[in-house]
Description:
The complex is a heterotrimer of chains A (516), B (657) and C (102).
Chain A (H helix, E strand, L loop, with lengths): L1 H5 L3 H18 L5 H25 L8 E9 L4 E7 L3 H18 L7 H20 L3 H10 L1 H11 L4 H29 L11 H7 L4 H18 L8 H8 L2 H26 L1 H27 L4 H24 L10 H40 L10 H4 L1 H14 L6 H16 L1 H25 L16 H19 L2 H18 L3
Antiparallel strand pairs in A: 1-2
Chain B lengths: L1 H7 L2 H20 L2 H25 L5 E10 L2 E9 L1 H24 L6 H20 L3 H19 L6 H32 L4 H10 L4 H18 L8 H4 L5 H10 L4 H8 L1 H4 L7 H22 L4 H21 L3 H28 L12 H4 L1 H15 L5 H16 L1 H26 L15 H22 L3 H5 L12 H23 L16 H7 L4 H73 L6 H22 L10
Chain C lengths: L3 H21 L3 H26 L5 H31 L13
Helix pairs in contact in C: 1-2, 2-3
Amino acid sequence: MQQVLxxxxxxTAIVFLPLLGAIVTLALPKGRPxxxxxxxxxxxxxxxxxxxxxxxxxxxxxxEMQFATSRPWIPSIGVSYHLGVDGLSMPLVALTGxxxxxxxxxxxxxxxxxxxxxxxxxxxETGMMGTFCALDFVLFYVFWxxxxxxxxxxxxxxxxxxxxxxxxxxxxxxxxxxxxxxLAILALYFSYTGPNxxxxxxxxxxxxxxxxxxxxxxxxxxxxxxSFAIKMPxxxxxxxxxxxxxxxxxAGSIILAGVLLKMGTYGLVRFNLPLFPQQSQECxxxxxxxxxxxxxxxxxxxxxxxxxxxxxxYSSVGHMGFVMIGIAAAAAPxxxxxxxxxxLLLNAKVTALNGATLQMVNHGLITGALFLxxxxxxxxxxxxxIDGFGGLMVKVPVYAAILIYVSLASLGLPGLCGFVGxxxxxxxxxxIFKLAAGLSVIGIxxxxxxxxxxxxxxxxxxxxxxxxxxxxxxxxEKWAVxxxxxxxxxxxxxxxxxxxxxxxxxxxxxxxxxxx
Amino acid sequence: MTxxxxxxxxxxxxxxxxxxxxxxxFGYRLxxxxxxxxxxxxxxxxxxxxxxxIAMARGHDPVNVSFPWVQIGRLTVDLGYQxxxxxxxxxxxxxxxxxxxxxxxxxxxxxxxxxxxxxxYMSLFACAMxxxxxxxxxxxxxxxxxxxxxCSYLLIGFWFEKxxxxxxxxxxxxxxxxxxxxxxxxxxLLFYLTGSVAFDPIFDAAHHSHIHETLFIAAAILxxxxxxxxxxxxxxxxxxxxxxxGPTPVSALIHAATMVAAxxxxxxxxxPLFQLGGEHxxxxxxxxxxxxxxxFMAATIAVAQNDIKRVLAYSTISQLGYxxxxxxxxxxxxxxxxxxxxxxxxxxxxxxxxSVILGFHHEQDMMKMGGLKKAMPYTFWTYFIGYLALAGIxxxxxxxxxxxxxxxxxxxxxxxxxxxxxxxxxxxFYMTRQMYLVFGGEQRDKHIHAHESPFVMTVPLMILxxxxxxxxxxxxxxxxxxxxxxFGQEPPAPFSLSVAGISTAIALxxxxxxxxxxxxxxxxxxxxxxxxxxxxxxxxxxxxxxxDELYDTVVIRPLxxxxxILYWVDQKLVDGTVNLVGIITIILARVHQLFDTYIVDxxxxxxxTVTRQMGFALRYLQTGSVQSYLCVLYTGVILFxxxxxxxxxxxxxxxxx
Amino acid sequence: xxAVHHYIFLSAALFAVGIYGVIARRNAVGVLMSIELMLxxxxxxxxxxxxxxxxxxxxxxxxxxxxxxxxxxEVAVGLALVINVYRNMDHINVDDINLMKW
Lengths: 516, 657, 102
């Protein structure tokens, strides 16, 4: 406990160090990009080290908020500077630290306006970290929006040919959701009056109080849902994703798929479930349906893609579907089944939610690596058309091996981390929504089909003569992707390091949820 | 002994795994030495498996070791391994045959530029397969299950530059994965019912649960679906013949001896679930019927194939069907026994065919072969033993196991027995046809100069031939195998002369027909296959009952089409809606802009304009000339005074009064 | 007998002449002189009323002296302005002195 208290500044450091770095980046000399890159890398690395320290110091078996810090910010309207992480957010914070570092390392190839680029990237990191750590709705909202702006510029300035369209679509779409969420937050704010007669924006207080009821709660539930579903993105709000991915620079894609999407699922678990347990129970079947549609629809549409990045983007839609059904299963009402104990069903719910959370982390690692690899290929070939390659394995065996490895992880091969998340999510979901789990399994086969088909068309077969001089993956790219590859394997074989903290938090959450 | 087994057994899968990593990272430097590493790995595993097997054979208690893996909710999921007689038999099959095939591969793959990669994959396969058979829970079994599927994918597509190879690899992975989904669902269902993934608690719960017996049976059938995919049973058998695109040692190890038998192993392992329902166990009848149909169907197709490996592939499917049939009719021991004998003689046949292919310069068409007996004597004689074993001629291995299966079938399920008997007849026929086409008569394509393979290949053949010849009788002796591997209190199948007579007669009949068609007058280069006389049936069989075409029309094309349609929907409808909202917003904004410019801003400007115009008008009054102001001023004063003078009463001036 | 209204009529006439001069003259010096006329008309008025209404006090006379003083100062300032205008513009036509007019 004392240890936890002593680390009161840790989260603040993690959140604001990148911001400090961004400000300093702007002051660095313009003519020397290497200095800027080195500085950004150092900042990202220090943040990562802090994240690792946070992970190490985290009390894994506890469901409490740790490293919490709370200071009044705008006391007159009940806004406080309240940060803290539990088993749900801690892995995501660590993931953000890792993926930002990897992205910045990979971004050494950026030579166009590097100062602004790295400043935006570090600002983005602040936004993402803050979103996961904030325990005050105003703070959360501010960070949520902060993370939007740099990404808008990253796509809009360093993106592909249709970057403006994609950037605006991304920005506006997310903003629509945010506004709905803001209204819901205000509804929560005004409906709760504390013992001292004051309203508050404090998340923990509001979760404990659950001030909304009836139709207002239902509206607020869907407002939150809209915001998070767009971010996730859940069917049918997913169409910004392929555009944004295709146009975003590689590092932007890594962050977009690896972290920004998780903000949506994180929000669902953090806010929707505990704030509106009643409404979650009533609407759980809708969430499950959306998840199943996302899985099948996403993987089928991915199959029809000829652009590598779009394929990965749609695969994300499918993979986030597994998160969705896991969440839905956890939210569903507890129906007694003869011969199956209540405890077993509760456990199944926890399992589903564990799987969903694990899937968030795993998807971040895997898809981050996939986008990086697509970027590597794009750097060399200047196109991403799947049918335009062929037989590359002969020329670039190491690259091919890595791509196959990551694709296999993505299609859920046991022993690699994608499997554990999906398997646990389905394992738990099956106990609650049998049909949904059964249908989702179709998605698994189709996912395998399109990944193998993609590998076949890009890597296997006779070599396309255009690429007989293709360069092998270089040292920088290898180093950038290596941590992801290692984690994919470790978490696939032994997920306990991530699963233990997640489990503690999820167990606590599900049991509280079922009291209603 | 038991504690010793406990201490070392976990190393068994790790040795090949270590070999895999070593070759993966140092393969380029190791070159040919990587084969040594791989062989050391698998041979080490064999060395460790042997004491396990001996311990089991001596009747020691099974070993079951668990360790906590993760905590989910308030349950701890344990993983672990177990060594019981069934596992011990599988370990022996995998490591012994695996070692021989690894050695053989050194000769077969010697010229391949990716030599080391081959051994890396093979080692990984061995690791996954050993994990599969040693697991004491469904989760690790599933991990191994998918792992062998992956290795199968990598090895079928080993010559990835060949389009047919990579297509076959993809097909194999996807078809088996379809089955795996059934297995996964079965595991989900079992977890739902029992809250566990480990075998023992699940089987206990299944045994004691009467409320959910149907669900447990459903789980058994789902699990069997996984086995159908992996063991290439009807209707998911289509991948196995195509898998022959892989190097021949792969076909022998993965697609004949071990991996495809994993499905049979799985059914045997989950037998307590299948057995639920007593005498009329539905799950078991499903297994029996699928097995019987597969055995018969694959045998008919094998008759009409001309590729030496494809004949063996269909033969494998047929024999796997046989094993399933055996398990399905209650012959637990018989099914597993056939698994073991088949592993030996089918590995032998595949390696023999590999030797033929290598000696025949990678030509696989049997119609071009003939008379290879002279050129390849070692291959011929070993192949001949494998052939007799497969055909079921006593006292070779295949006879004993097949006989036991037929015996059980006759007792429990007569229609399935008929399917099995027909399959047995067809088996001995197509094998005889193959023998005559490959080794008998004269070579039909004279351009190819056949030669015998090196000793590194023929020695494993001889060892396997030795086992194929004796293993049956050794195991049957004193019901030895039955005492080792049995389920519950199942009585040993009594050896019945009449059944043995029938099965031998069937085998001889097939051989006789084969001799009549192919042996009596050897086929010359100009002759056509006598089977062509059966006309359309032959075409039907040669096209494998048109299963590929069926799946192509029913599954693959609709899937691809729906993918394209959905993509269109996504682009035009879903994204279209989003863009439409955007466009409408823009149009509204334009309209708003017009309103704003001309109406709102118009009013504002109007006020300004009016003021300004008035100012302009009034400017003329404001001359700035003081004189004109004064003029106006005094005019005003005068007018005021005059007005007052004439009208005003209030204005009083004392001087004017 | 000369009564007060005679003085008033004289003063009014003189004042009217002054007004006419101020309004009609275009020469700035003329305007100044007309102003002096008007002031003198006022002085006549003051003296007349002082003589006839309050013969015992000297209020009117004192007022007249003040007016004469102020008029002198005014002429000094006014002529200085006129001279400056003449120096800058070469004329003293009041209609054309409109530089600051909008």
